[in-house]
Amino acid sequence: MSGPTPVLNLTDPPEAASGRLPPEGAPPVDGRSPIHGGPPIAVPAPSISQNPAARAWRRFRRNRLGFVSLLIFCTLVALSLIAEVVSNDKPLLVRYDGQFYFPMVNEYPEKTFGGDFPGPTDYLDPLVRARITEGDNWALYTLNPYGAKTIAYYTPLPFPSPPSRENWLGTDERGRDLLAQLLYGFRLSVLFGLALMAIGTAVGVITGAIQGYFGGRTDLAFQRFIEIWEAMPELYLLIIFSAIFAPSVALLLILLSLFGWTNLSNYVRAEFLRNRQMDYVRAARALGVGNGRIMWRHILPNSLTPVVTFLPFRMSAAILALTSLDFLGLGVPPGTPSLGELLAQGKQNIDAWWISIITFLVLVVTLLLLTLMGDALRDALDPRKADV
Amino acid sequence: MKPLLEVHGLSVAFGGKEVVHGIDFAVAAGEKLALVGESGSGKTVSALALLGLVQNGAVTGSAIFTAGEGEQPRDLLTLPERELLSIRGREIAMIFQEPMTALNPLYTVGDQVAEVLQLKEGLNAREAWNAAVEALRATGIPDPERRALAYPHQLSGGQRQRAMIAMALSGRPRLLLADEPTTALDVTLRTQILDLLSDIQQHNGMAMLLITHDLNLVRKFADRVAVMENGYLVEHGPVADIFASPQHPYTRKLIDSRPVRDVEEEPAAAQAPVMQARGMQVSYPIHLPGIKGWFRKGEFVAVRDAAFSIAPGRTLGVVGESGSGKSTLALAALGLMPHRGELEVVGSRWGPDASRNKAIRRVVQVVFQDPFSSLSPRMTVEEIVGEGLLVHEPGLALAGRRERVIHALQDVGLSERQFPALLQRYPHEFSGGQRQRLAIARALIVNPTLLILDEPTSALDVTIQKQVLKLLQRLQREKRLSFLLITHDVDVIRAMAHDVVVMKDGDILEAGTVRQVLDAPRQEYTRTLVAAAS
Fold this sequence. Notes:
Order of helices and strands of chain A: HHHHEEHEHHHHHHHHH
Oligomer: heterodimer
Strand content of chain A: under 5%
Helix content of chain A: 55-70%
Strand order of the largest sheet of chain B: 6-7-8-3-9-10
Helix content of chain B: 25-40%
């Protein structure tokens, strides 16, 4: 054994010993070990080569908790992406007087179904409901017959109303169905988290790569810039900007992106600083490969481990940031379904326990799933982990 | 008389996979036993197992340790941790390969030696410090009172290893386990450290188990030798017998793994040199201390006033120890570091313009020392080897490129027949020697005329080293390549080089043909180098 850390090397044997390929200069063709009387060496059938990403994926799948978290999270996201056909105040399909109607696609005036007004139909109105379901007529409602902004006018209880047969998780203080709110709010949070994560990662990787690869003055100047940038009071700026501009999701995304990239940028910079010293980069430079190509093809793939490891954590941080801002009233415009706004309602209506507890649970489960996935991902990408 | 240590059926397994398969050996008091083998042969694990230092592993067998006449024999492998603690350091001590990582960087060397003395000998702080200084003096460190106050990074490699030895010997052990004690040191230091160990060993009557891959060292130093291969102990006996008549084929292979000279010896026809340097100087910027450093940078001259030339189809060997500037010379020759003075590569010079340099890059290629860091772990063999074509022959279609890649791989002895789906494999699936072949293929694919070899075999086992050198010799003959061979190993120079340059501290001390320099060295330093290698 040569190497300063023998114990570590042993748990992760060099590939020559791990049986993927016959070790060089050794086993004779007859499959006998070169030692007198030694046991026969099984010459392994060479397997199809696996790239590093495939190996990491295999290790990720072996972590049951992380893998199950991923499955659950993906299911929830898929469910929220089709929220319009899961929770909507318009029926999917109506059969009225021998004709089919698609309320989700087309808007029909109430008169179509024998109502009194030329305005759009409210399919939850007991009168309309009775007309389109009597006799041969029928209507196929979604699983939860409330949309994100639907107000449950026809509930006999005062708002916020507790869980009931009409509103499975109750309503909020403005009479909107809580389940619909959570579903649409979760979708907004996840999509916002994904977008923020994508922008922050892209900016962080690009700036980190430039600093780390070119080093020297570029690095020095950029580092000082980041230090000044990070010293800016983020929350005050958010408050000021939300006072100047009309609050919108896009504005939030831009503002949070402005400050979200510095952390990752530093990690990527460190990786690039380390990897640009490696002999494979020197060899590429000796071959005359250009800077851009070296950064993209040689260094970046070898510097992605911290980036990928941080993705779930960054996403949970983004979701939490959005929730906090909404809670403070600085987030998405009023009326948009959001977890933070529901939490704020829960705080104002302490007696309406269902609002705060259920929203809290949704938030906890989301963040927990992301954290578990992040842990599993970190383990899967850890180069020191044995690869079985 | 019972031997000091009697090992019987020692096996070590990690996660159900056995890496040491029941080895037997014995060490008598005052004896020097060498455990020889290549990397992965299980020699270090076997030694660590004796001291109960194997983590996450299952150790079976017995290791009977009898401290002296009339002492109770004890089985090291079944002793409880508490009793092992009293044996480690006092009865059996260990020194490691890399003294930089074996010493704690946060404590002075004196503190670290004194700590052992306080723990093992029960001395108070003042006595322990004095004893530590004495221990350092005994290992030949100059000015031990001052050196004891130094931190590990302030000492040179040789001094650090001496400090390690002082620490190991401070408990007056009966058995010293030395794991590659000289591998990380320069050749001239190796002899000194071995002489020191020899002196101390004779003086104290201590036994030694020397773990090494270096047969020269075994021949000079050990009484008996045990050869390990893939976790089996294949042969053991007195050093003289084993070297005179090795029985096992593996031992024979190890013994004649010394590289063989097989190069074109005809004097080169008068042709324009491939590379020529005159008055070449390479320097690094360094930080100046204090306020001065804010405004300007100092300069460290790594290569001073170098002059050499390489003829077509010939090899120029550059030999020197670490810090001699030989690797810097290689980087400058590759145009990866700026230099002053003259350096001509087939008639042109490196300039600041990347697109003009591209033409020269095609002519000069490189193979680095460490086959593990010289190939990107996330690229396939085809991508790695074919990269040069993308740069220098961008018009080549995919099929043509693949053809050339396969051809280059065949040149270095790698084929689809040996490794199915070779082109789609990743570097981690290859051993050190195979990776080095890939690195050579990557350099050869653009048909260079000069190959810069920066310690091409230093990270490889001896038997693999021989194969790679053979490959390089063949390629030189077939393709009329010139080599700039940079190495610390005089054996490699002897096998490969036509002309030699000896470097020390950035200066070229001596230059000439391989015969002149190695057989009749003019400089004292060259004589030491050559003597240390034989």
